[in-house]
Amino acid sequence: MKFIEQHPDYELYNTDGYYIKxxxxxxxxxxxxxxxxxxxxxxxxxxxCAIIAKxxxxxxxxxxxxxxxxxxxxxxxxxxxxxxxxxxxxxxxAELASETGELDDINDILxxxxxxxxxxxxxxxxxxxxxxxxxxxxxxxxxxxxxxxPSIFESTREHLEQAKLQLARSDKSxxxxxxxxxxxxxxxxxxxxxxxxxxxxxxxxQRLISDDWGPKAVLRDATSIWxxxxxxxxxxxxxxxELIDLPIEETIYWxxxxxxxxxxxxxxxx
Length: 270
Description:
By secondary structure, the chain is mainly alpha-helical. About 60% of the residues lie in helices and about 5% in strands. The protein has 12 helices and 2 strands; from the N terminus they run H-H-H-H-H-H-E-E-H-H-H-H-H-H. Strands 1-2 form a two-stranded antiparallel ribbon. Strand 1 and strand 2 (about 125-130) form a beta hairpin.
């Protein structure tokens, strides 16, 4: 599986001191040294060159002499680095790890330069890129909603996309956490209003209950969430002077709960 398939929103991950969306220059020489150390012949080096060339993409090495192929290896690694395509570089590293069998050594050099992922061999799946602590991918429930949300709910999608952007800054900014939560509430409101035809949040919920659209306990949860956020966390709304702390753990709890409801509603609407 490609890196981007395992981590489609890696650029939104939160991190503390790790490289999660760029390859540091300090990785190049250790990687080259590892590959040279694993090669028993110029033919082995040419195989490594062919793998790297595939991800640039460019033609592989046509040389055969040891020193000449080492020169090609160095050139190809730098070409791939200069492309600045993080996910492609990670795919290349995974294939090189598979080719050399040196999983632990590659993980060691990744750790030495503070890259925030490591390779793990998973039964029936092969090599998988895992996140290191303390990185958290907070936007998981939002991603789940966006993957399945029909395009007709355009306003809801826009609010969820905005919430993802805010979560990218959530580890450093209390305001960003509140904005992410506000955008998720707005996504829920837009969805309810579009389905019910009403222009007010509470009226939308009441219309769906009156129409026996779904279980009352589930639909009323929308009102419960709305009421709690607006009464207990009033500064989630812009313009309110009262400042209340909103830890990341609580932020994610409410966002996950809202997105569970969003998914239920649009799946029921289909």
